[in-house]
Amino acid sequence: MIGKKLFKQLQQFDPDLCTVLKFSFDRQISTLSLIPTDNAASPLSQYLKGSAMGNDFIGHNSFEHYSRVEQLTIKRACELFKAEHAIVRTGNAVAASRVVLFALAKNGDRILSFNLRKKEHCTGSQMQYDFIKFAVEPTNFEINFDKVRLLAMRHRPVLIIYSPVNYPKNIDYRPLREIADMVKATLWIDLGQNAGLVAAGKIKSPIPYADVVTFSASDALHGPQSGVILCKKNLASHLEQTVIDTGHVSLKKNVLAALAITFREATCPEYKDYSDQVLENARALENGLKAAGIETFCSPTENHLVLARLPRDLNDGALTANKLEQAGLLVKAEKLMTSDDRISYPILRLSSLDPTTRSLDENDMYTVGLTLGEFLKSRQDAQAMKAVSLVIKEMVEDLPLFSEEWLPESEIIRDQNSELMMKAMIYGT
Question: Which regions of 75-150 does DSSP assign to beta strands (E)?
Fold first, then answer.
């Protein structure tokens, strides 16, 4: 009732802003997103982010005295990912990435990076680095670690970065650790949207091999917009000082509380079930695309990602994505890099994360893949867009943004201390 009353007041007091709010909600509820970074936050996380803790700010410029909620968040992050140390103060993945770059590389240093990941986060920065690319081979779309080793020996990078945001395979991290040790480089794994599957124990964790691991708490983990840095203890103080020096002093307590509950939810059986369904749905999406005659790269997928190759007569993935958006299906158009700079492929980078959150199963995702594939093979005219629109509209009209089946109610009921912990986060310091 309070929510309805506040919404009515907002409607009367600020109709312009209320129109923007309604447009955002209507867009989310009436479309289906296959964009990897799109996903709804859990209701528990949203509740804490909107709680009275938003009035309470951690007003210190050191890591010597953690607040209770920050201590709780760090403890849960370390336990969930089995990490030696966690930094939870950065506001998003870009801020976390810049902290790592500024802390571990000097101006002009060489960085060996998968698909040149993190180079985009240097835009507008005074720090400039010499990025060297490694990528999948253009023939078998696998990483040739012998080539990576040769690149590392030739260029002697201070940082080696691997981020699987464009790779549906789960690699063995040991060769990267060995290469980093050989050239005395720091190994940084940016998990991206694979963080949830790692947390749930569904795919291999890089924590035993990496010096630094970063990810966002939103998308796969259903948390607030914030960046997380996990690291070895020997790097902790240097990274913490860089957080302060770059102005990322702290998050408000409401965001930290939302982050703490996010890590707690990821330990529950419901989240593990969710992660299993994410994997099933990704495979079904890929199979639907193949049934429509669409080639997929790095197949079969081993995580939440599916890379759909655009038909050879289509070079403008952005135009295709725009037409699909008008039909209610959101996709991400990109280029798949290879180790040969002359060869790249236009793709749609697709994910099963958000559809799974909204309760779609593998039968639904097969239909989505088939529908998307048929559109890609069509003339992509108004008639083809209408066909997509009809399927998507029927599929999403009764879907929630966050399905109740993923709420950890059973875990909360079993835990006799949960109410006390909740009160501590809301009222404590």
Answer: 85-87, 110-114, 130-134
Sign of CA pseudo-dihedral 350, 353, 358, 359: positive
| pLDDT attached to residue 119 | 85
User: Which tokens in the block code for residue 84?
Assistant: 């030696």
Partners of residue 145 on adjacent β-strands: none
- pLDDT score at 64: 61
Q: What count of other Cβ atoms lies within 10 Å of the Cβ of residue 283?
A: 20
Q: What is the pTM of this model?
A: 0.91
Q: How far apart are CA 280 and CA 363, in angstroms?
A: 10
Task: Give the dihedral of Cα atoms 285, 144, 192, 242; nearest 10 deg.
Answer: -170
Name the CA dihedral angle for 125, 128, 129, 132, rounded to a multiple of 10 degrees.
90
d(CA 69, CA 259): 10
Q: pLDDT tens digit string along 137-172? A: 999 999 999 999 999 999 999 999 999 989 999 999
Kindly tell me the burial class for residue 64, based on how many C-beta atoms sit within 10 Å of its own C-beta (0-12, 13-18, 19 or more).
exposed
At 230-254, the pLDDT tens digits run 999 999 999 999 999 988 777 789 9
What is the pLDDT, as a whole number, of residue 422? Answer: 44
Give the up-direction half-sphere exposure of residue 160: CA atoms within 13 A in the CB hemisphere: 27
State residue 413's pLDDT score: 41
Name residues whose C-beta falls within 8 Å of residue 132's C-beta, 6 or more positions apart in sequence.
110, 111, 112, 113, 151, 155, 157
Chain-centroid distance of CA 12 in Å reads: 37
CA-CA-CA-CA dihedral for 237, 239, 240, 244, to nearest 10: 130
**Which residue, among 74, 159, 67, has the nearest Cα to 121 in the 3D structure?**
159
DSSP 173: S
Burial label, 33 (beta-carbon count in 10 A; 0-12, 13-18, 19+): buried
Q: Return d(Cα 382, Cα 397) in angstroms, integer.
A: 22
Q: Which residues of the chain have pLDDT under 50?
A: 1, 410-429
With CA atoms as reference, report the closest residue to 194 among 97, 104, 268, 302.
Answer: 302
